[in-house]
Design goal:
Strand order of the largest sheet: 3-2-1-4-5-6-7
Radius of gyration: 18 Å
Strand content: 5-15%
Helix content: 40-55%
CATH superfamily: NAD(P)-binding Rossmann-like Domain
Shape: globular
Distance between the termini: 43 Å
Order of helices and strands: EHEHEHEHEHEHHHE
CATH class: Alpha Beta
Number of helices: 8
CATH architecture: 3-Layer(aba) Sandwich
Number of strands: 7
Structural class: alpha/beta
Length: about 270
């Protein structure tokens, strides 16, 4: 019998790490509430997640919303609060996963010889940080204010090695990932007295829809495969399995960390 129970809130639930984690946590015994942003052509991805969660015998409530808008945050959390109240189980939001990947991939200044190249604007810079970093704080604020998460709660935020490295056109996302890791440390400090653990998960290079949008992603994929000791890329299922394991009872003393889930890819120096 699984040790996991209660609800998981997955931000970015329809694809990549979010979808894999929703499925894995459902198989481990958790009900799933998710937020995703999909148009008609990608809505089947969310439908497939819901079908798989329900096939595992768990409940699944998905919201197709912009997870960085304050009104939508309130809408989702109010709905989840009502579900927990109906269950007679307030405070049983056990896992909150922040896996939002939406940002501007533009250079800060024009490359040499390209004076008319499009560069990032203040609005795009702010949007990238708000979606990929600051929204974590707002979701946690809302969950705590409603009493949804108590002792043994877990908060995870998906970061990447790009938070400490530079790549063409990746500056705004890199800054957002660095800010996200800073938010994780601060939240770990502030939520420690409540018995809630907060960690960032640094996945290895993974072939996801978000990675495919990064300029030069083909080079990243080939290089990571060659560098990884296992000779393969990280998969969303690798990350989901780690999150399930880290969510087992008794592991809240692990908090405030950036945890690598990459098969030792990040430590290889060639």
């Amino acid at each position: 019998m699984s040790e996991l129970n209660g609800w998981a809130l997955i931000l970015g639930a329809s694809s990549g790490f979010g979808a894999a984690t929703a499925r894995a946590l459902a198989r481990a015994g958790m009900d799933i509430c998710g937020a995703h942003l999909d148009r008609k052509q990608t809505q089947p991805l969310a439908d497939a997640v819901k079908a798989d969660v329900e096939a595992a015998g768990r409940r699944c409530v998905l919201h197709n919303v912009n997870a960085a808008e304050p009104e939508r945050i309130d809408e989702v959390l109010d709905g989840l609060s009502a579900l927990l109240a109906a269950d007679g189980a307030p405070g049983t939001l056990r896992v909150l996963l922040h896996s939002l990947a939406f940002g501007s991939l533009l250079p800060f200044v024009p490359p040499p010889g390209e004076p008319d190249a499009k560069c990032i604007t203040p609005r795009q810079m702010a949007m990238t940080s708000d979606v990929m970093a600051h929204s974590l704080v707002y979701w946690v604020q809302g969950a705590v204010a409603r009493g949804l998460m108590g002792r043994e709660g877990r908060v995870y935020a998906m970061t990447s090695s790009g938070g400490t490295r530079v790549m063409p056109a990746y500056g705004a996302v890199s800054a957002a990932k660095a800010a996200l890791e800073a938010h994780v440390r601060q939240l770990a400090f502030e939520l420690g007295p409540r018995g809630i653990a907060v960690n960032a998960i640094r996945a290895g290079i993974t072939d996801t829809p978000a990675l495919r949008k990064i300029p030069g992603n083909d080079v990243l994929l080939v290089g990571a495969t060659a560098r990884n000791p296992a000779g393969r890329l990280t998969t969303p299922d690798d990350v989901a399995a780690a999150i399930v394991a880290l969510s087992a009872p008794g592991t809240t003393w692990m908090s405030g960390n950036v945890i690598g889930v990459d098969g030792a890819e990040d430590v290889v120096g060639f």
